[in-house]
């Protein structure tokens, strides 16, 4: 059932679902931040302007699999689902079981799959759902504060998981991502959104398509 099919639910369920979306999200998000501040990164969800700018380069009509790391309470989920083709799939991966339960409960869309797991395991996760590669991967994980080599493992796994020509979309409060993903991605575009709490750095890491790779191999 798609997100706009909420209207088909009984009135009591519709009211409850809308109330949870309106008020419950803040409570769940704040709880997640208090329990796992290193993994959540911010107590305030991204602004609408950040969402629009981050997703703007995606050619939605070509997307078959969209993946998100650290979806939280779904700040990006509904805007993505509004743009995603009807036959596409959206896999959201989070290590916080509270967020996963909340997403499963509040997003009744057959295209949407909420997975309790680690972004570093993205290849195995998408394979479990019948995909060889993702078209685009979005991340709001606070990469600079992740322990050990986890951030680098995520960057490498994401590059392998993406199809040629796909992209890693990252929004952060610092510029650490630039140095993290440049060794793995053919091109990194950068942006900035002031109207966000806090102001946000945006990155789009593009994986070379096969044609570009072939041309470079002959030089």
TrEMBL record:
Keyword flag Transferase: yes
SUPFAM superfamilies in alphabetical order: S-adenosyl-L-methionine-dependent methyltransferases (SSF53335)
InterPro entries, A to Z: Methyltransf_12 (IPR013217), SAM-dependent_MTases_sf (IPR029063)
Molecular function in Gene Ontology: methyltransferase activity
Keyword Methyltransferase: yes
Gene3D superfamilies from the UniProt entry: Vaccinia Virus protein VP39 (3.40.50.150)
Keywords: Methyltransferase, Transferase
Domain Methyltransferase type: 68-167
GO biological process, one term: methylation
Record protein name field: SAM-dependent methyltransferase
Taxonomic lineage: Bacteria, Pseudomonadati, Pseudomonadota, Alphaproteobacteria, Sphingomonadales
